Structure formats: structure tokens, C-alpha cells
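It would be a great kindness if you could assist me with a short task in structural biology. The matter concerns a single protein, recorded as an amino acid sequence and a row of C-alpha cells. Kindly check, if you would, that the fold set down in the C-alpha cells agrees with what the sequence suggests. Thank you for your consideration; the sequence and its C-alpha cells are set out here:
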Amino acid sequence: MSKNAKIAAGGVAVGLILLVWLPWWASLLIILGVPAAAYLALDPSQRRRLRRNTRKQLGR
């Protein structure tokens, strides 16, 4: 299993645990807030590179 697949599987496991322990709205806030905070923490040049790579992936 690749490193990204392990990270994704761990994220799904953590998400399921959070859904059991926290109310659904708190889990949703965490699930959406963590990636948003990580994106906002990037430099403008890193954000441009990320957007460019994402567009290339979609346009294959």
C-alpha cells in the first residue's frame, strides 16, 4: 500500500471515530476545517503550484 493510501485510510478511520464520539456538526467542522487550514497555511507560490497540478490531474 502506498504512503498516500495509508494516510487516506488513517483519515477515514479517524473520521469514523470522530463521528461516534462527537456530534455530527463538530465532526463535519473538523473534516472540512483541517484541509482548509492546511491550504491557507501555504505560501501563495505553493498554492499556485497546487492549483496548477490539480488542473493537470483533471485534464489528463
Summary: The mean pLDDT is 83. Helices lie at 3-21, 24-40, 44-59. The CA atoms of residues 35 and 41 lie 10 Å apart. The two ends are 24 Å apart (CA to CA).
